[in-house]
Amino acid sequence: MSKLQGKVAVVTGASKGIGAGIATALARDGAAVVVNYASSRAGADAVVEAILSSGGRAIAVQADVTKIAEAQGLIEAAVKQFGRLDVLVNNSGIYEFAAIEDVTEEHYRRLFDVNVLGVLLATQAAAKHLGEGASIVNISSAITHVHTPTAAVYAGTKGALNAISGVLANELAPRRIRVNVVSPGLVITEGTHNAGVVGSEMEAGIIAQTPLGRAGQPDDIAAVVAFLASDEARWLTGEDIAASGGIR
């Protein structure tokens, strides 16, 4: 039997990149998956179609998790469709760099709203439906360890996420709900292409620092998330797993 058989998962920001890889992996391991998207309906539909065509169960649900009513609506849609909720993967995130002299209020608020507030609101909405053995996995970044220039705001959001995750691990532990973090290194996605990282000197520098000598792929991250979502990780909470090829 697949290790997530009978479980229901919500993956935020799952229309592309790491989120799409996670949604696909959870479905492959037996979970029914809610593929959340903010604006890319076509991308979310493609992920759902791929899951359905492989014999899995999935639906796409639009929601901006920075808005409390929409975050609640996302979780309610999962429970209405599949009857329960066992796994929340907080993957939605914005990936932008700016030198300190170029940081603006808009840049700061946009990143913190999505990368931090969105996690809080989605988790708040999900917590009332999660029972014993449930798992929350928050997607952070190895950038909190490597301190990349021009990433002050982005790294700040992920540092905040790490601290929040530790608090929630303790806060939800009496209910036997686990909270863990996965911190990817450089992963080849639409986001890293659009940010100009892929093919740049930055990419070459990061790969040079990565002991395993390559950039990651979404499946590399998805496999770790699927493990944390499963009962195989039943004794893990409050952990930050660096899925980064060894970069620190």
Automatic annotation (TrEMBL):
Domain of life: Bacteria
Gene3D superfamilies reported for this sequence: NAD(P)-binding Rossmann-like Domain
Pfam families hit by this protein: adh_short_C2
Keyword Acyltransferase applies: no
Enzyme Commission no: 1.1.1.47
Molecular function (Gene Ontology), one example: glucose 1-dehydrogenase [NAD(P)+] activity
Alphabetical keyword list: Oxidoreductase
Transmembrane segments: none
InterPro entries for the chain: NAD(P)-bd_dom_sf, Sc_DH/Rdtase_CS, SDR_fam
Similarity comment: family membership: Belongs to the short-chain dehydrogenases/reductases (SDR) family.
Protein name, entry field: Glucose 1-dehydrogenase
Organism: Methylobacterium adhaesivum
